[in-house]
Amino acid sequence: MNRFLIDAITTSRILLGLLFLYVVLFNFNEVYLIIIFLLTAISDVGDGWLSRKYCLSTDAGAKFDVICDFIFIMLSTLAMVFHGMIPPWFLAVIILKLIEFFKTSDESLVYEKFGHFVALMFYAFPLVSVLINDKSISLILAIFITVCALISSFMRIYKKFY
Q1: Residue 96: exposed, middle, or buried by beta-carbon count in 10 A (0-12, 13-18, 19+)?
Q2: Is the sign of the CA dihedral 137, 133, 68, 26 positive or negative?
């Protein structure tokens, strides 16, 4: 096992994000979107597991993983914004949360449980909005996730500076 293979698995999330966007815009199919999401989740869990198993974890690899996660989240959320299921302002919430994550991490990334939960909600929200197919519920979920992101940001910033 080498780092190149792990990075290729990580990079696959960018391609899967583009595929998610394509399917939403040009060939809307819930089954395809579920498969894309499952492959993305497998790649996310798999690259981390392989890195740890073969002692190939690095700070650069962890940052690359977060960036690929972010790109998938942005592409899949953007797809659902174009589809009219997620409000456009939610993209700004994701971007600001990523900036705050990197700014409040030192040389190596700092994770906390509630922030990890928020990241999982960011990840799952586009697929959830596909499955529920209701703009009102998606808006309520977007507001709920935003409130959770704000609480998480407050907790991180407070912990970092106080």
Answers
A1: middle
A2: negative
Residue type, 124: A
Radius of gyration for the alpha carbons in the chain, expressed in angstroms and rounded: 16
CB 77 within 8 A of CB 33: no
Which among 56, 59, 48 has a CA at the least distance from the CA of 10?
48
Length of the chain: 162
Looking at this protein, which amino acid is placed at residue 18? L
Consecutive H or E run containing 2: none
At 150 the pLDDT is 96
pLDDT digits (tens, 9 = 90+) for 17-57: 999 999 999 999 999 999 999 999 999 999 999 999 998 98
User: Is the overall model pTM greater than 0.70, yes or no?
Assistant: yes
Tell me if 157 sits within 8 A of 104, measured CB to CB: yes
Question: What six digits make up the tokens of 32?
Answer: 């395809």
Cα distances (angstroms) measured from residue 70 to each of 54, 57, 63, 104, 142: 25, 19, 10, 17, 17
- In the chain, alpha helices (H): 3-26, 30-53, 59-82, 89-104, 113-132, 135-161
**Among 152, 120, 146, 138, CA closest to 37:** 120
